[in-house]
Amino acid sequence: MKRKKILTDPGFWVLIGINVYLTIHYYNNPAIFTTLIWLYWTQSVMMGIFNAVDILTVRTVQTEPDKETGQPVSSMFKYRVRGAVFFTLHYGFFHLVYLIFIATMKRSGPFQWDFFKYFLMAFFVGQVINFVQHKIQQRRAASSIGAMFFVPYLRIIPMHLTILVPAFLNISNLGIFLILKSVADVVMYVVTKPAPNTRESNEAMLAAQQTMNV
Question: Domain of 133?
């Protein structure tokens, strides 16, 4: 079922198309590698921004009722704010350290702004598609803020390791690592994609809501 959902997911095909094109383009124009590094870093930052907004606007959270008020924690806006702020600080510090690292890396060609902005726009479109799909799904099932906190890391860590390893190993031919990056990006997109709702999960959610209202 999930495989069928992925094959009809426009965000999935946008991601594949962008990564394939960038890998092929790099083989023909190795001087764009510096621009690619900054493009992928910005893509990661963008994923974090969308995830913070996702946490802040999540409709129903999988959690126990608040001990003091007896109300579902999901009804408390401050709970979602705390989750979004903590994620932003944690994710932001990670990317600040990463920013310092890549800023000190040996450059491979000049930064190409036109190339950067067009593909950043393409990544943005893919993120918007994914965000809207997730919001639609959240109307039918509760979400775990804990899981939402870690999902972006599951995607970006394999993706960026394949980019940074050549820097540590002082490897000049980076094409194979771009291929691995593309594979990691697509595979982790599939792995972290929320599973489609089932009748059982919807019934369990309804039962929990009814219990809280008693």
Answer: 2-213
